[in-house]
Amino acid sequence: SSIMSFSEAEVQSARGAWEKIYVDAEDNGTTVLVRMFTEHPDTKSYFAHFKGMDSAEEMKQSDQVRGHGKKVFTAINDMVQHLDNSEAFLGIVNPLGKKHATQLKIDPKNFRIICDIILQLMEEKFGGDCKASFEKVTNEICTHLNNVYKEVGW
């Protein structure tokens, strides 16, 4: 049973799109975070050790930015592997959402920002079809993360 309405074809094309960007998980994850910090500087406030970094170059070199970029991509990869199994998908999304809501106190709008930057990067590197194949996945991820926030009374 699936709460998510992905056809098998959609799952396959989403995975194909994701694989292209996940091959360079650390570099692409870093690019996404650096863009977020640069275009939305308020997001830096959640990361004590990134606060003092102003130049994109400096951020790109940071082991902590790189490490977190890779972590974000690894989490999304786990979700992408379970698009056809909502129980397993939610088993990843729910604890992640809870942690960001209750421990890290991250504004949920930042999930949408990250997803939009990932889509933008996909389009730049691999074209509009790649982006289109993955759009539904990002909507699903953000919807479920937002639901977790509602449940914990954000």
Automatic annotation (TrEMBL):
Catalytic activity as recorded in UniProt:
Fe(III)-heme b-[protein] + nitric oxide + H2O = Fe(II)-heme b-[protein] + nitrite + 2 H(+); 2 superoxide + 2 H(+) = H2O2 + O2; Fe(II)-heme b-[protein] + nitric oxide + O2 = Fe(III)-heme b-[protein] + nitrate; H2O2 + AH2 = A + 2 H2O
What's in the keyword line of the UniProt record?
Cytoplasm, Heme, Iron, Metal-binding, Muscle protein, Oxidoreductase, Oxygen transport, Transport
Q: Can you say where in the cell this protein is located?
A: Cytoplasm, Sarcoplasm
The protein's superkingdom reads Eukaryota
The Globin domain is annotated at 5-150
Q: Which residues form a coiled coil?
A: none
Query: Gene3D superfamilies of this UniProt entry?
Result: Globins
* A GO cellular component entry from the record: sarcoplasm
Please provide, alphabetically and separated by semicolons, the GO molecular function terms listed in this UniProt record. Answer: heme binding; iron ion binding; oxygen binding; oxygen carrier activity; superoxide dismutase activity
Pfam families, from UniProt?
A: Globin
The job of this chain, per UniProt, is described as: Involved in oxygen transport from the lung to the various peripheral tissues. Monomeric heme protein which primary function is to store oxygen and facilitate its diffusion within muscle tissues. Reversibly binds oxygen through a pentacoordinated heme iron and enables its timely and efficient release as needed during periods of heightened demand. Depending on the oxidative conditions of tissues and cells, and in addition to its ability to bind oxygen, it also has a nitrite reductase activity whereby it regulates the production of bioactive nitric oxide.
UniProt similarity note? Belongs to the globin family.
Q: What is this protein called?
A: Myoglobin
Q: Which organism is it from?
A: Uria aalge
Instruction: State which gene encodes it.
Output: Cygb1
